[in-house]
Design brief:
Length: 190
């Protein structure tokens, strides 16, 4: 049997997965920021100049008005998983000032799903639970494809689902089976 046709054992497959780089592609902060800006503009949003909100300045601020409805996104772009906790803290500070009418999003370049799931699952799903509890979305931006995947969270503006990569793919189902219902559902039950 040639190497190409050789079947892999589970252990071999897992060992190969650990060698996958954290970021599947290399994009700069600016490429991701431009990509998410283009995505939001394509979906009908106006990109506003972000300004200091309390002690934090978001990387982008976008608004779409439809009749009486106003949809607003404030976001921070991260370039690796190590910065996620700090970026969540920044968004929580902004959220304490702007409130719940604004939607909050962390944006990252494409990350190996294996690494992303492992990261969000560490410590009993601490990062996933915090994103869910704080109603912070996690988007993966693919600048070379001009697409965005809403990996975690739900946008109030249902129109965005026409533009997201994978549409309404329910990624959190994986985490629900692993850790139980998300914090937002546990609060309703309690």
């Amino acid at each position: 049997m040639t190497e190409k046709n050789k079947k892999l054992t589970s252990a071999e497959m897992l060992s190969r997965m650990h060698t996958v780089p954290q970021l599947a592609y290399e994009f700069s902060f600016q490429e991701v920021l431009d990509g998410v800006g283009q995505f939001l503009q394509y979906a009908g949003y106006q990109i506003k100049s972000p300004s200091l909100i309390g002690s934090e300045k978001p990387d982008f601020y976008a608004v779409r008005e439809v009749g009486d409805a106003i949809y607003t996104f404030v976001g921070i772009v991260g370039t690796d998983l190590e910065g996620v906790s700090g970026n969540i803290d920044k968004l929580k500070k902004i959220q304490s000032i702007l409130g719940d009418d604004t939607e909050y999003v962390l944006v990252s370049p494409p990350i190996s799903e294996f690494h992303l799931i492992n990261f969000l699952s560490e410590a009993g799903g601490k990062q996933y639970s915090e994103l869910d509890r704080e109603h912070i979305m996690f988007w993966l931006c693919y600048p070379n494809e001009e697409t965005v995947w809403c990996f975690i969270g739900t946008a109030r503006d249902q129109r965005l689902y026409e533009y997201f990569k994978f549409g309404k793919l329910n990624t959190p189902q994986f985490f629900r089976t692993r850790f139980g219902p998300p914090a937002s559902l546990q609060e309703e039950d309690g």
